[in-house]
Design a protein that fits this description.
globular; 2 domains; GNAT_dom; 8 helices; Acyl_CoA_acyltransferase; Aminopeptidase; alpha+beta; acyltransferase activity, transferring groups other than amino-acyl groups
């Protein structure tokens, strides 16, 4: 079998999406595998953000798999990585990992990571071949939301002036850089706004930015219908970090209700123990459980002193 790995093209997005749903739906045992993910979407908007970081596997002119690589400054991750079930156990996934590692080298990524099913030792072994190591569980948590607690010091990126947006992105980088040097989420903030995927909420206090959360909501985004999904969120560490984290969750709940969604979803790594337990106390419950794999085997921003929400899927 002659497998070629290359960049995915615009006219192949629908095919790649079909293979992705078929592969994951088959893996988790859905009766109709292509219904995996419902009306949530991952591949198209990520391709639009950086088409040079989305790779396809091709055999005899047909797309049989893909892998998406994400650049958050000093941190990078990849996934979803998917291979058509007819081509499982033939080395295709390994071939799709190779260009992701090349991206990390080109970007001078200091820490790479991925989210993988906790119950899949075969995949653990695959990624360990590339230097990734198993660390803490990541829990995808969900909460039904019908009402919210107003937070007066909250603003939305969509409502900011151009100057305010520049200052907001600058402040967001200063915050992420404070928890892990070089961590950069400006592209996620700008992508959500430019592609109409959702909004970013900002929490302020007298000292400046106390937290922010990049959120998708609705069909055609990574959230899906009736859902607000926190792609990334973080509260300022140090004094009152737990309080700011609670207020940031208040802002996310407010966004959920004002956008007429009924469900809030966010991921948290269990190494951030206090953040995880604060979410449980607020009524969040586990929906999916995976494990974070790191390369190198260091914590990065997955630490007890960090109050962050993220999802590397």
């Amino acid at each position: 079998m002659n497998v070629s790995i290359r960049l995915l093209q615009a006219n192949e997005l629908a095919t790649a999406d079909h293979v992705f749903r078929l592969a994951f739906g088959t893996f988790v045992g859905l009766p109709e595998p292509t219904e995996f993910g419902g009306d949530a979407a991952y591949i198209s908007h990520r391709w639009q953000t950086d088409p040079a970081a989305v790779f396809a596997a091709e055999v005899d002119g047909k797309i049989i798999g893909s892998n998406l690589v994400t650049n958050w400054g000093s941190f990078g991750c990849f996934g979803p990585l998917s291979v058509h079930p007819d081509f499982w156990n033939q080395g295709v996934a390994q071939r799709l990992i190779e260009p992701a590692i090349a991206c990390f080298t080109q970007w001078n990524t200091q820490q790479a990571g991925l989210f993988i099913f906790a119950q899949s030792p075969k995949h653990h072994v695959l990624y360990q071949k590339f230097g990734f190591r198993l660390r803490f569980l990541t829990v995808i948590m969900t909460k039904p939301v019908e009402k919210y607690q107003p937070v007066p010091q909250g603003t939305k990126y969509s409502q900011m002036s151009e100057d305010e947006r520049i200052q907001g992105i600058k402040a967001a980088y200063q915050l992420t850089n404070s928890i892990y040097e070089g961590l950069e989420l400006s592209r996620e903030i700008q992508t959500v706004e430019a592609q109409g995927l959702g909004d970013t909420v900002f929490l302020w206090d007298d000292a400046g930015l106390a937290g922010f959360a990049v959120c998708h909501y609705g069909a055609g985004t990574e959230a899906g219908s009736n859902t607000c999904f926190v792609k990334f969120g973080v509260a300022r560490s140090r004094t009152h970090a737990g309080q700011y984290f609670e207020q940031l969750l208040d802002l996310c709940e407010e966004l959920t209700v004002t956008q007429k969604m009924t469900r809030l979803v966010a991921g948290v790594n269990t190494s951030r123990d206090e953040a995880y337990h604060r979410m449980l106390a607020r009524g969040f419950r586990s929906e999916k459980i995976g494990v974070a794999m790191h390369k190198p085997n260091e914590p990065a921003y997955n630490r007890p002193d960090v109050f962050a929400l993220d999802d590397w899927r």
